[in-house]
Write a structure and sequence with these properties.
This protein is α+β, with helices and mostly antiparallel strands. It has four helices and six strands, in the order H-H-E-E-E-H-E-E-E-H. A hairpin with a 3-residue loop joins strand 1 and strand 2. Helix 1 runs antiparallel to helix 2 and helix 1 runs parallel beside helix 4.
Length: 160
């Protein structure tokens, strides 16, 4: 596990993760296989996560996809909760304390902060990548940038 919060590790740690992800997904193009590998990779490589996975766009509703962690909400309407907000706005949502986020959906009461990256390929919303942590304020601007770059690699190497 890489401690991305250690002094000086930040984006350098993400450079290593990007190289590892490129290698992990290099020989596979299947979206579900790669999403499964990517969620397991994030869950095992990033510290202080209790959920890492995907919600997929199915007719303007998010439906649970491959993930690692506790059981999860199966369907999330666009515009509801952190994931639905990211899907509707197509903007990354980095929430320090989910309990202060209007309309937060508590799929796991142990989650206290969240980072959700919309997955857009060729102008089409594929879904969102969702990371949850039991710690308030877990995700930094460096985490957001690093995860967005990892998500871009995933999208580039996967057929969607």
């Amino acid at each position: 596990m890489i401690d991305l919060n250690a002094t000086g590790a930040g984006l350098d740690g993400y450079a290593l993760l990007k190289a590892q992800l490129e290698s992990l997904l290099a020989d596979e193009r299947d979206f579900i296989a790669n999403a499964s590998q990517f969620s397991a990779f994030l869950f095992n490589q990033l510290d202080d996560l209790n959920w890492a996975g995907f919600y997929l766009n199915r007719n303007e509703e998010l439906v649970l996809g491959p993930f690692q962690g506790q059981i999860a909400c199966v369907r999330i309407p666009f515009g509801r909760g952190v994931c639905g907000t990211a899907a509707a706005s197509r903007q990354t949502q980095r929430v320090e304390d989910v309990h202060t986020f209007a309309g937060h959906i508590a799929c796991d009461s142990a989650s206290n902060s969240e980072l959700v990256v919309p997955l857009v390929k060729d102008g089409r919303l594929i879904g969102v990548l969702d990371l949850d942590s039991p710690s308030i304020g877990r995700f930094t601007e460096q985490d957001q940038q690093g995860i967005e770059e990892l998500a871009a690699i995933f999208l580039r190497l996967s057929e969607c």
